[in-house]
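Exercise (ungraded).
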Amino acid sequence: MTTIDLDYSTLDQTKLDDLTAYIDSLEHPEESLIHVLHRAQKLFGYIPYNVQFFVAKTLKIGAARVNGVVSFYSFFNEQKPGKYTISVCMGTACYVRGAEKVLQKLLEKLEINKGDVTEDGLFSVKDVRCIGACGLAPVVTVGEKVYGHATEDMALDIIDKYRGDLDGN
Amino acid sequence: MDTVVKDTLQYRIALRNCGLINPENIDDYIAVKGYEALAVTLEQYTPKKVINIVKESHLRGRGGGGFPTGIKWELTAREQSDEKYIICNADEGDPGAFMDRSILEGDPHSVIEAMIIAGYAIGASKGYVYIRAEYPLAIDRLETAIKQAKSYGFLGNNIFDSNFSFDLELKLGAGAFVCGEETALINSLQGLRGEPTKKPPFPSVSGFRQKPTNVNNVETFANIPAIILKGSDWFNAIGTDHSKGTKVFALAGKINNVGLVEVPMGTTLRDIIYEIGGGIVDDKQFKAVQTGGPSGGVITEENLDTPIDYESIRNIGSMMGSGGMIVLDEDDDMVEISKFFLDFTQDESCGKCTPCRIGTKRLYEILERLTNMEGSPEDLDLLEELAQNVKDSSLCGLGQSAPNPILSTIDRFREEYEAYAYRTKRTTYAIDDNKCIGCTKCSRVCPVDCITGEVKQVHVINEANCIACGACYNACPVDAIIKP
């Protein structure tokens, strides 16, 4: 059985203070759980169990409810993502224009499964719901950067680019 | 980036300001009669009068359901309560649809203005925009717009010196398709899992915080200021008998002009695809257009001349949905398309009710079995029976409509399903003996060297080694390669 780490004393105190201040500023804190979790994910990069537990304690609600919400919404990550998350849009427009091939190429090259992180911690690859950029289909994003009309070759270039850190973003 | 193309067939109401004004400057919006509808409403109309104008315009919900907006407002208005709420559903989750994103990014004030008017009409003093976290620019623009509207006194206390007060707040979603369903959306707004609840009670009676709540979609709201200013007669003159006004469609897929189009109700798909959309990429053969996203179906060549409105599109086996329109060509495999949508719905099913949670999963598995060439003819019967059951017994719209992509494609393209079920579907390329001229181009491009033949002799593909890459198909100058 895996042990669940609920000890939030090991977390960065300034980030926790930021989160507490945010919660204190809310008019209806409990109702704003999703907003609190967005904030937490922005601060920590993902929402591990101990952060969820901290949120539950601060909002004075059950940890199970927090976990229920975190695990329900696909936007929230419970696992630490790679330094660069490569997202392949799987909207219908991207799909019919070959997004699946681009995704497979990325996974093949990085030798990981969807949602996993490479051993060096550099990349994770996921498919995302339509990002509404159907005019650029198929679309791949890395952080805020959008790559339109993506091809299998472009997928390899993207990996090389970030691996070499040429772009620096 | 998103182009609105060729304007002879188009008529812009919801998109009237998109691309024309600076969405980050409220003065730009005011310059095009922005907030004038609000001023007229507060100074001259009673709430009842506003509802009557919207009712008489026959505006129907643009999120897909097509419920008359004026009646929805009236139902919420007649409830007695100390507090009521207006919610804008901006959780545009249909893959391949981006109308709402474009409106929020290009003309956020029109939605804000409409929400204030709706608040006045139903007696609400607080509104929420529930927006997808996947739309950062739209969130940004809306936040800016709300701030500006507050500083100009359009939001806040005693708007235009009336005794009406209204405030607006943004609420973020977190990636759950089911939250487009209004009861699920309301749960999500309250910081809960976005699971739908049984109707009745409808949100108009008991919604957000158990108070009467009116939920409308972005595009629906964007129509309101124009209707108030120009009147219901003007709006009634556009469209068909039962569907008035315009509809915005997001045209994407194998089409030359990808982008948004806004056309009067009653425009034919042929006009949308060929006149506005510029036809199919590489002049390939049109196969079908998929409308209504994961809840909709496909429309084929024979129905391209049907004037499109809420009723007619249902009669030809699809649905309006929020307005996504994905054009498919001869290369698209309809069983794979169904599988794509079922993969989506089984993943997005919230899990609350059994028919949807388990049913969509089993439907997906049958499709997977078929496309893996492991299916049987019995699978087709099972597929249809189960699809009907899921449709009939699911709790909310997601499950009730999830089987539509299967039912619609199996009706129109049964032979494609049968090719999988009877395992007669070709998985490799082949060469037509009668057409091959022996030019050797195919054998030279084949990456696995599985094409043999002498110069000027008929070539042959060794099917055991073919990886179905399609290189030979593209290289052949005489169309002698047969696709799988």
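Further reading is listed at the end of the chapter. For now, observe: The mean pLDDT of chain A is 91. The beta strands of chain A are 84-89, 123-128, 140-142, 145-147.
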